[in-house]
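Repro case for the chain-ordering regression, as requested:
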Amino acid sequence: DVKVTQSSRYLVKRTGEKVFLECVQDMDHENMFWYRQDPGLGLRLIYFSYDVKMKEKGDIPEGYSVSREKKERFSLILESASTNQTSMYLCASREPINYGYTFGSGTRLTVV
Amino acid sequence: GNSVTQMEGPVTLSEEAFLTINCTYTATGYPSLFWYVQYPGEGLQLLLKATKADDKGSNKGFEATYRKETTSFHLEKGSVQVSDSAVYFCALRESSGGGNKLTFGTGTQLKVEL
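-- result from build under test --
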């Protein structure tokens, strides 16, 4: 089975800090995604990547950037964390044939 | 653009009750449709999917039929269990062009009580 691992389950950061959220998948998938999940809003796409060093903005990219230096790793970066970025962040990887998505367990980030 | 609308929760049912969670969508083209489930403290798992009109997806006693005429993909289960308590997300994926990403509904929390 595909495994998507997010490095932290819970993070607490201060306003203005630079924050890195890491995601690793073990199936050599080209496509990876970062979503944030908020009550009443569902999942919203922040960024996605379809290959190493390739990225595209999703629906809510403001305040975020991403890095994909190796195929297995997709990092989400909060350049200067703000309290409105307190959320659950979910990483996903997508299969190339039947397009199935596998999600990580999520990182619950609190910015104080 | 694409969008998915789900009924608001929480939905509270007694064990063995019948479940329906409504989902309607707006999309250009012919999307694939999905239901994902999120158990407490976990990420999302694919529950079932349908890739074309009139397809029925099914898994673990849950079913949903892709209805193009009503742009709907309602989730049903004949007899829910306490272990079905979770948040359920309806999602679509475009068939071409922007087919690289999923668009999700807002999620519906289901609570099943004894």
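Ordering looks correct now. The longest strand of chain A covers residues 42-51.
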